[in-house]
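Quick one: structure tokens for this chain, please?
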Amino acid sequence: MHRSVTLLIATLATVLSTAGLSSGPAQATPPGIPSKATAQSKLDVLVVAAQGSMSGYSRDLFPHWITVSGSCNTRETVLKRDGASVVTDSACASTSGRWYSPYDGATWTLASDVDIDHVVPLAEAWRSGAGSWITSKRQGFANDLTRPQLIAVTDNVNQAKGDQDPSTWQPGVASYRCTYAKMWIAVKSYWALTLQSSEKTALQGMLDTCAS
């Protein structure tokens, strides 16, 4: 009996693994996440300024998702990067896979349950300096695959975050807040976006939880 149960469990584990449903996170790390020391040095020199106006803002002024390669756009590229056992069709749409959302610790097996979060939201960027950019620069920001600006997460968590900065929204998984702060700082630093004082205070508190 015990041997039969063991064989059954092993068989089920093999089936689940093959189907892309094995247990444990399937999380890719976005590129360009700095060390704690580097993030601290970047945070120290970011310009603190009052929040800008939302006048004239539209998501259409940040064209996304754009074609990255072949028939694959930015969203599909991040889904493949951040997922495990991801299968795509001829149009590059993900037909199966597994995605772990580090914001809330949930794992999903349908791409429709996953959003690609702009770590620094588009509206937040607008208020922090992007309102004066030309459209091509805003397109680069909205589709930035080089810095830690894009990450696959649970769709309703992304929607709950909206355009909030870290002074009013942080990942529910407390252990991920260090990484989130480092990503946010790296993006704002590269794109020379400003910080509000409350935002800087929140980022410093998150950064202080980092081991390295």
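The chain is about 40% helix and 15% strand.
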